[in-house]
Amino acid sequence: ADIDDVVKTEFPGCRAGFKNKEVSPLQGSYFENGVGYECFTPDVLNLGISPAVLIENVSKRFKSLGGTVAEGSPLRGVAISESIGAAIDMGETEEPITTRLVLDCMGNA
């Protein structure tokens, strides 16, 4: 799976408890005592990911579905139309791109 390619740091699951009232002392689980809920969260902290691999995977999938990625290209403007969606002005030397979805992901260098 794609997610397996991007996860670089794995953290095993842990128990999470949520109290909805205070009872002290407490023996047993929150759920057993009627004071809240508990759940096990497997892989919830697998936050060590590679953004470069993630963006590369998403870009490949998007392009395979007919999408256009204009990486490193200046975005001069966007015109919105009910009939065609959006037209992206890529500058005087480039033809406009028409689309129904525009993502400006500037800032992740």
Write up what this structure looks like.
The protein is of the alpha+beta class and 109 residues long. It has helices spanning 2-6, 51-64, and strands spanning 7-9, 14-19, 36-41, 48-49, 77-81, 85-89, 97-99. The strands form 3 sheets. It has a 3-stranded antiparallel beta sheet, with no helix packed on it. The radius of gyration is 24 Å and the shape is elongated. It starts with a helix and ends in a 10-residue tail after the last strand.
Overview features:
single chain; 109 residues; alpha+beta; two-stranded antiparallel sheet
Task: Describe the protein's topology.
Elements: H1 2-6, E1 7-9, E2 14-19, E3 36-41, E4 48-49, H2 51-64, E5 77-81, E6 85-89, E7 97-99
Strand order of the largest sheet: 5-6-7
Which consecutive residue ranges, at least 5 long each, have pLDDT under 50? none
Oligomer status:
single chain
Question: What's the order of the H and E elements?
Answer: HEEEEHEEE
The assigned structural class equals: alpha+beta
Compute the average pLDDT.
81
Number of helices: 2
Largest sheet composition = 3 strands, antiparallel
Q: Cα-atom Rg, whole angstroms?
A: 24 Å
> What is the beta-strand fraction?
25-35%
Q: What sort of overall outline do the alpha carbons produce when their principal axes are compared?
A: elongated
